[in-house]
Design brief:
This protein is mainly α. The protein has a single domain, classed as de novo design (two linked rop proteins) (Up-down Bundle), CATH 1.20.1440. The protein has 9 helices and 5 strands. The protein has helices spanning 2-13, 19-44, 60-68, 73-118, 126-142, 165-197, 215-218, 237-334, 343-350, and strands at 52-53, 148-154, 157-163, 210-213, 230-233. A 3-stranded antiparallel beta sheet has the order 1-5-4, covered by helices on one side. Strands 2-3 form a two-stranded antiparallel sheet. A hairpin with a 2-residue loop joins strand 2 and strand 3. The longest helix is centred in the C-terminal third of the chain and has 98 residues, at 237-334. It is elongated and about 140 Å long. The N and C termini lie far apart (143 Å). The relative contact order is 0.10.
Length: 351
Amino acid sequence: MVWGAVEGVIVKALHYSTPLSYAWLFLLFTFRSFIVAVVGGSVYGDESGNFKCDTNQPGCQNVCFNRFSPISHLRFWAFQLLFVCLPTIIFMGFAQFELAKVNLLKSQTEEENAKITANETYFGSNTYYSNKKKLEKKCARYGVDKLKKKTTIAKEGVVNVAWTPRIRTIFIVHLIARFGMECLFIYLSYLLQQQQSKKTGLAAMWVPEKYECTHGEFEMNSACSQNTLIPCWVSRPWEKTIFMLYMTIVSIVSAIICIVEFVYVLTRTTRKSLNRRAHKNLQKKELISKTNGSIVSGSTSTTASAYPKLQKFEAEKEAEAMEGAISEECELEAEDPPSYKTDDERVALTA
């Protein structure tokens, strides 16, 4: 029942995720939890009963088994699956809380607008400005103005998923936390196998057929104090080795999917942010160029409107000058002709 509730929450969280999260969820519930539930019990169910040590000392076999297996592998993998799902569950709870806050702020904004419509004196009052300032701060904090909706396909059909800057940030953080949980339990699994095999490196992942219990050598008043080295025999070592390697490989693949999804989401978010910033800068440049163009056209039209006046003034000056010249010629023509005493003088002057 618990795993059904966890699966329901994770499926809802997939509305925010990429196809890589679907692959991670498929590995989680099909190749990990299903295999552990179906196969794990038959492999590790008789682990304690079939663990035999060459001793007749009371309690010695029990303390040797506790040293060989500090925690059951089935319980360890159950903890692993639960803690790996924990970041996704926390993210989904945070997303639901953020969306509830956004809807509340929208309803409060609508109520303020209704008050303004119902009472005109409310607009411009101190209460109005105080409430408006508080709402603006909360809306800026929760990113109401930057709310975006993404359409995705789920089991129930087409679903609209709301995104805010805070939800996007927590989504990226939850991917990091999920990757960290995967790596942590891979390391803890290595320590558990190292405790059993007493080896390091890749050889530690092999379950030994024989386990040498040295509990009596290092513990005072131990149940195995009569013998410092007691050989114990492990049941189904090869089967357990194969199962352990399988779970480790699936965990490594899941961790790789988590880090790839983190890089993909971070790269896509950064690219979109840079594109939006470049688009805003381009719009700003276009606005500045349009403003400068209107200023230049305004000054040109002013000069053009003043130029006809200048032409008219110059034309009037030229007309006045021409009128003066014509009047002078007319005065010269109107003067009396010269008188001549004799015809010979007139002929001589004319010649």
